[in-house]
Design goal:
mainly beta; 2 domains; eight-stranded mixed beta sheet; 12% helix
Length: 347
């Protein structure tokens, strides 16, 4: 009887451990731990659930209101703790090893500028201590980077060269051994990120929308974000939509004021090259934009946010600035923009 109870107890503990691992609950032993990071973005069908592992982790790192800037040339993305697969403290030396072959994998040394972490994709990348890139440029399984100096580092893995397919990223705050011993941090899993505050991010109140609008008698589809119940668009998209009407406006750069000047009644002309199309971020960040905007030389107030490197402006603010009527057609779920009528506040 006693032996049967022992067998059942052993079986119960074994099954419990398997379920915990399957549920992505980290099980640690000792002071230094190995953490495996897996993407919450779309994965290729044959991709494993984890893309790389980090050794020497001692606890969670509170990123606070700091962000990591991903610079992709003409476009960019800002990440906070909830847009990454963890922010950790660790004790040097720390090793980061790829668990699958990807288009990009590396560890990058970060430089903090006020509340923004920045890095260069080439100059900031640490060399591999084990392994090398394949002939086609992809990074194979087992490539390892060893970090020996204290500081802040960004780990990035991606499957697809053009989209955020399987993108996985982590911030590591590496401290000296004495600093690590002075605190006794605990590690929680990704479901309880150690972040005390964040900018406006992708929640049910902030979401990407492919919006149907009716400008006078013309139907248009425009990319937009809905933030706290209000729709935000790019200025150039709105200027293009009302071009040729009595409420058209041009967009010019005032070099003296170093600000955008909107010109009433002026046609809008596309200048330079258009922003490249980018994949829709599943976890967009909306950061308040404090850039000054002028209309006909006078400073005006337009609520705007920077999302993925582009500025989006509140539709009603722009409409009010140029006396354009905006209404909501609830039956057809359509925004009606009428340049022939005056602006009125929403009822």
């Amino acid at each position: 009887m006693k032996r049967n109870i022992q067998k059942k107890t052993f079986l119960f503990l074994t099954v419990t451990l398997i379920l915990m691992l399957a549920a992505n609950i980290s099980v640690f032993a000792g002071t230094l731990n190995i953490v495996q990071a897996g993407s919450f973005y779309e994965l290729h069908p044959d991709a494993p659930t984890k893309q790389y592992e980090i050794s020497g982790v001692t606890g969670n790192y509170d990123l606070g209101i700091r962000y990591v800037s991903l610079n992709f040339g003409n476009a960019g993305t800002l990440l906070n703790a909830e847009n990454m697969e963890g922010c950790y403290t660790a004790t040097a030396p720390v090793t980061v090893k790829s668990l699958d072959t990807g288009d990009r994998f590396g560890v990058y040394k970060l430089a903090l500028n006020e509340n923004l972490y920045q890095f260069d994709w080439t100059d900031s990348k640490l060399p591999y201590s084990i392994g090398t890139a394949n002939a086609d440029g992809t990074i194979p399984t087992g490539c390892t980077t060893t970090v020996r100096e204290p500081g802040d580092y960004y780990v990035y893995f991606r499957y697809d060269p053009y989209y955020d397919m399987g993108m996985t990223s982590t911030l590591i705050h590496i401290v000296g051994e004495a600093e690590t011993k002075a605190t006794a941090p605990t590690i929680t899993n990704k479901d309880t990120p150690a972040m005390t505050s964040s900018p406006l991010k992708s929640t049910p109140n902030t979401s990407y929308v492919f919006t149907l609008l009716k400008f006078n008698d013309t139907w248009k589809n425009l990319d937009a974000y809905n933030i706290n119940g209000n729709n935000y668009f790019k200025l150039r998209d709105l200027a293009t939509a009302v071009n040729g009407t009595e409420k058209q406006f041009g967009i010019a750069w005032d070099a003296n004021k170093k600000a955008i000047n909107l010109i009433s009644g002026s046609p809008y002309f596309e200048t330079g090259t258009a922003s490249p199309a980018t994949a829709i971020n599943l976890h967009p960040l909306a950061l308040p934009n404090s850039a000054q905007i002028y209309r006909d030389g006078s400073l005006i107030s337009l609520t705007s946010y920077n999302i993925g490197g582009s500025n989006y402006f509140k539709l009603r603010d722009v409409a009010k600035a140029f006396n354009i009527n905006v209404t909501w057609d609830a039956v057809n779920e359509t925004i009606i923009v009428n340049t022939k009528s005056d602006y009125t506040d929403a009822q």
